[in-house]
Amino acid sequence: MDNYQNIDMNFITISSTRDCLKDHYHNGYELIFITEGQSNFVINNSSYDFCKNSFVFINNVEKHKMYPLETPYSRYMVIIDTDYLDSIIQEPALLSIFKIRPEAFKHGFKIQDKDVEKVKTLLNQLLLIYSEKRAFWHIEYIATFTSLLLLIYRQYSTNFPIMTIRKAEQRIFDIQKYIDHHFKSDITLDSIASNFYMDKYYLAHTFKDITGFTIKQYILLKRVSFAKNQLFYTDKNITNIAIDSGFNSQSNFIRLFKKKEAITPLQFRKRYRKG
């Protein structure tokens, strides 16, 4: 399947505060824009209350759930495959709103009234492109999404984890991209430090300081995220998924997956593939 086919979008209105979204996952970057009502988001271990005219940004390794606080609650949702967007948008500062999670990072913010109509216009264009899916629709979709992301960055750059790219940050971005492409291999802090000619202790500290993850955590999150995608979209057996995702054995895969997700891979498949 082409990565651009892993694009999803909708606009929904929830009328009851009982209609919550429990812990779930998406194998892509997720952007939400709230147009009406208020909701509580729990993203990893952080809790936020977001109101009308707020953006929310979630990446593919972050567990999250949502509870409407005030209805009717309406929102746009865009999900784009991580590898596909990474391959097209090469500017680390723009992608940092999805990829970088320093200690003080906030997953969303409210925009000013003067920008609301411009944002809605772009989101409605995206919704039309997605619903019609005319020839080469994905090219038009990504171009329009990039325009939206540029608008957000230019008006609200202080909400992005990285506004200007220094040499040290660029190097960490390169390493993060390296892990994104090689997490299925037997990579470690030592091997990455050797490949990039860096002191491993400096690398470990700098990577954690900039991204919010240790290298070991980030590799595991990438492997688990890939495995979840395989569990959901394919009928591969657990052993093959374990090996394909970079784990050295089925037992190690099951142990680490359960530690991260609180359920086994097979339980995950049964739960999320219902219906």
Automatic annotation (TrEMBL):
InterPro entries: AraC-bd, Homeodomain-like_sf, HTH-like, HTH_AraC, HTH_AraC-typ_CS, RmlC-like_jellyroll, Tscrpt_reg_AraC-type_HTH. PANTHER family: ARAC-FAMILY TRANSCRIPTIONAL REGULATOR, HTH-TYPE TRANSCRIPTIONAL ACTIVATOR RHAS. GO terms for molecular function: DNA-binding transcription factor activity; sequence-specific DNA binding. It comes from the Bacteria. Residues 173-271 form the HTH araC/xylS-type domain. Keywords: DNA-binding, Transcription, Transcription regulation. It comes from Natranaerovirga hydrolytica. This is AraC-like DNA-binding protein. SUPFAM superfamilies: Homeodomain-like, Regulatory protein AraC.
